[in-house]
Design goal:
Largest sheet: 5 strands, antiparallel
Helix content: 25-40%
Strand order of the largest sheet: 5-4-8-7-6
Number of helices: 8
Length: 196
């Protein structure tokens, strides 16, 4: 706006306000009394543009790779970049019921070694519930689409009795992850794996 005042010229620009997490298109017009400012909240437009760019990027990744390993590695990196999450991993269900990580970004090697060898036949945790499709959308941490999301895992686990916890692993919480999301990926009505 200094330019509009100093040079007496109309000035327009888009600005991000971190304190409110919003984007604004501001236009400044000099008038004899000072400035007239028109501000339009364009946060939804910016978010839609970001989502569209991410969709295009993920489609490019899908068409770029002929082999599963490099595809999943680049998808994990892309999801991490898009979401801003600290860590992202992709589990794939095999015919024996194992759901190892096939790709990961941000997780420590120690975490991956502890968590990768999960099996839907012998382990109990939220990953297993999501992969098996045994989620209950009436509970606040499951979605209608079968995803799991929890912010503040320590606070949540403090409200659950040891009996209710049963044999669940809770490794994510033990390793310091307070926010956890598990999103299944599905083809033909069958859950093939999940994004962690």
């Amino acid at each position: 706006y200094h330019r509009a005042m100093d040079e007496r010229l109309p000035v327009a620009g888009e600005f991000y306000y971190a304190s409110t997490g919003t984007w604004w298109a501001n236009r400044f017009y000099p008038v004899p009394e000072g400035l007239v400012v028109f501000a339009t909240n364009i946060t939804e437009q910016r978010n839609a543009e970001k989502a569209q760019q991410a969709s295009l990027r993920f489609l490019e990744i899908m068409h770029k790779h002929a082999e599963t390993g490099p595809l999943l590695e680049e998808l994990a990196a892309g999801i991490k970049d898009y979401t801003g999450c600290d860590s992202v991993a992709i589990r794939v269900l095999d015919e024996a019921g194992n759901i190892p990580y096939h790709a990961y970004k941000g997780f420590s090697t120690k975490f991956v070694e502890m968590e990768s060898p999960l099996s839907i036949n012998s382990d109990q945790c939220m990953c297993i519930n999501v992969i098996k499709g045994t989620t209950n959308s009436q509970l606040p941490f499951y979605t209608k689409g079968g995803s799991f999301y929890m912010n503040a895992t320590t606070r949540f686990l403090a409200t659950v009795s040891e009996k209710e916890k049963g044999k669940t692993r809770n490794i994510c919480n033990k390793e310091g992850y307070e926010s956890v999301a598990l999103v299944p990926f599905v083809s033909g009505g069958r859950i093939l794996g999940l994004i962690h």
